[in-house]
Design a protein that fits this description.
Blueprint lengths: L2 H13 L11 E3 L5 E3 H6 L3 E7 L6 H12 L1 H4 L4 E7 L6 H10 L7 E2 L16 E6 L4 E7 L5 H13 L14 E3 L6 E8 L3 E9 L4 E10 L2 E8 L7 E9 L2 E9 L2
């Protein structure tokens, strides 16, 4: 018996939750006939929250809680965090699964009954099993096995998954963008150049891609520009992205706040 097998055996005995830390790819149609390729969706920056169900009565409340949590991200991260329902063993007809989902307020979620989308790939069978998948490395950020759902842990997992696909640092727009100091305490000095007169917007985003401060939105002339941004009491310690959009071009710069 190798070390990994022994580890899984001990962990399963203790928590009944040994599972792969990497998602298992699938290509399948949902019950509405729409095609899905899991790794392509994750590579595109999507975060997938899946509820594996029998379906059963005990599956309803946790699945509804998971769907509700996902819906909270519709404003801050539109189209990014998705909720799926999958039959645990792919032996429930799609008509039955879809009817169960609709009856219990989850009719808008894509549902699957396909052997390539297996609950067993994520450890022990549980009703329901809820997993969070995301990131370019296709990581499993959360694995819930039956019973009531801790929505705080679910939210933390979704945020962690989003952090792996946050606003990228782009340095090819030609703005000669620079920030000082970095790390910053209460303010930063921003310097950039414009090739011509353009409409300019400057915003600050947090690590999960939500805009938290709108700094500037005006038309500016060509040439070099400098701006002092004071964010006392607006931003806590952490990693942020300053994003400048001028015309059709966008550039972002990562900075750290350490007060």
């Amino acid at each position: 018996m190798n070390k990994y097998t022994l580890f899984c055996l001990l962990l399963t005995i203790k928590t009944l939750s040994c599972f792969s830390q990497t998602a298992v790819d699938f290509t399948a149609n949902d019950c509405a006939g729409n095609p899905h390729h899991l790794f392509a969706e994750l590579d595109a920056g999507k975060v997938i929250v899946v509820s594996f169900v029998m379906p059963c009565g005990s599956c309803i409340a946790p699945s509804l809680s998971a769907q509700s949590m996902v819906q909270e991200y519709a404003v801050t991260n539109p189209g990014t965090v998705l909720f799926y329902i999958s039959d645990d063993a792919a032996n429930t007809p799609c008509a039955t699964l879809s009817s169960w989902a609709t009856t219990n307020g989850m009719g808008s979620a894509p549902d699957f009954s396909d052997l390539t989308f297996r609950e067993s790939d994520y450890g022990v069978i549980a009703m329901p099993k809820i997993v969070v998948l995301g990131g370019a490395n296709h990581h499993v950020f959360f694995n819930h096995n039956g019973g009531s759902l801790d929505t705080t842990l679910l939210k933390n997992a979704i945020n962690s998954a989003l952090a792996t696909t946050a606003v990228p640092q782009i340095n090819n727009a030609g703005f000669n963008l620079s920030l000082f100091p970095n790390p910053a305490k209460d303010q930063i000095s921003l310097s950039y150049s414009l090739p011509q007169s353009l409409d300019v917007s400057i915003d600050i985003y947090n690590i999960i891609g939500s805009r938290i401060v709108s700094v500037f939105n005006e038309k500016q002339s060509s040439g070099k520009h400098e701006l002092l941004i004071n964010f006392t009491n607006k931003i806590s310690n952490g990693i942020y992205y300053l994003k400048i959009k001028a015309g059709e071009s966008t550039e972002s710069f990562k900075f750290v706040v350490d007060k």
